[in-house]
Design goal:
By secondary structure, the chain is of the alpha/beta class. The chain has a single domain (7-232), classed as 3-Layer(aba) Sandwich (Rossmann fold), CATH 3.40.50. 41% of the residues lie in helices and 18% in strands.
C-alpha cells in the first residue's frame, strides 16, 4: 500500500472514534445487503462488527491483506471468519449476493481490473456492490499518499469505470459535504500527516450527524469528501 511506517496504525486508531460515520454508511448500505456477503478490506474489524449484526446477512466473509490488521481483527472479533489476502485469494465458492468495499479501491493501481473481479463474483446471483471511496482530486493531500492512495475520484470517473466493467448504477452521489472542507483545510492546506483522535471524535459527535441528516433527507451535495455507489450486475 506504499504507506509510511505507522500510517495504518494512526489511521485506524483515530477512526475508531467515527461511530456515527460508520452507522451512516451502514444505514445506506443495509437495504442492499443480504445472503452471502464479502467485505473487501476489513481492516481491524470496525465496520465488520456492525455488518455481522445485520439479520439479512447469513454469511459474512471479510477479506484483509495487511497481516498487522488481520492480527488486530482476530483479537477484536475472534469468532469471525477472516480471509487474509486479497480478493484474488478467494477460494470459497459462491454465489455471492453482495460485496462491500469501503476506502479500498483507491489503494489499487488497476482499479478497473478489481471492479471486473467484483462483477464476475456477483453476476451469478445478480448481486450488488456497495462501494465507498474518497472523492475530489483537488483535495488529494500528502496524507493520501501516506495511506497509499493512488487517486481520489470524481463522480463521472467512478460512473465510467463501473459501467465499463458491466455494473448498472442504482445510486451514485457525493457524501460528507462538510468533511470536504475539513479535509482541504487540515490535510491539503495545512499539510497535516495524521488524524487527531479528539478532532475526529468532535466532528463525528457534533458536526457530522447534522450534515448527514441534511444530505440524506434533503439533497445529496454537488461535491463531498467521499463518493457512495450502489451498483448491481
Amino acid at each position: 500500500m506504499n504507506q509510511r511506517p505507522g500510517a495504518t496504525d494512526f489511521e485506524f486508531a483515530a477512526l475508531r472514534e467515527a461511530n456515527n460515520y460508520r452507522r451512516a454508511l451502514l444505514k445506506l448500505f443495509a437495504p442492499h445487503l443480504r445472503g452471502r456477503v464479502i467485505e473487501i478490506g476489513a481492516g481491524c474489524g470496525q465496520f465488520t462488527a456492525q455488518l455481522r449484526h445485520l439479520p439479512t446477512i447469513n454469511h459474512l466473509l471479510p477479506i484483509e491483506p495487511d497481516p498487522r490488521l488481520c492480527a488486530a481483527f482476530r483479537q477484536a472479533l475472534p469468532a469471525q471468519t477472516l480471509l487474509e489476502g486479497a480478493i484474488t485469494s478467494l477460494a470459497e465458492p459462491g454465489p455471492w449476493t453482495a460485496i462491500v468495499s469501503t476506502n479500498v479501491l483507491e489503494h489499487i493501481r488497476d482499479d478497473q481490473a478489481e471492479l471486473k473481479i467484483y462483477h464476475r463474483l456477483l453476476r451469478p446471483a445478480h448481486g450488488r456492490l456497495c462501494l465507498f471511496v474518497p472523492a475530489r482530486p483537488e483535495i488529494f493531500a500528502p496524507i493520501d499518499s501516506d495511506f497509499g492512495h493512488h487517486r481520489r475520484y470524481t463522480r463521472d470517473d467512478l460512473r465510467r469505470k463501473l459501467e465499463a466493467t458491466g455494473f448498472k448504477i442504482l445510486h451514485l452521489h457525493y457524501f460528507n459535504f462538510i468533511g470536504y472542507f475539513a479535509w482541504w483545510f487540515n490535510f491539503k492546506l495545512m499539510r497535516r500527516r495524521k488524524f487527531n483522535p479528539a478532532a475526529v471524535r468532535f466532528f463525528d459527535r457534533a458536526i457530522f450527524p447534522l450534515g448527514f441528516s441534511l444530505e440524506s433527507n434533503l439533497l445529496w451535495p454537488p461535491f463531498g469528501q467521499s463518493l457512495i455507489a450502489i451498483a448491481e450486475t
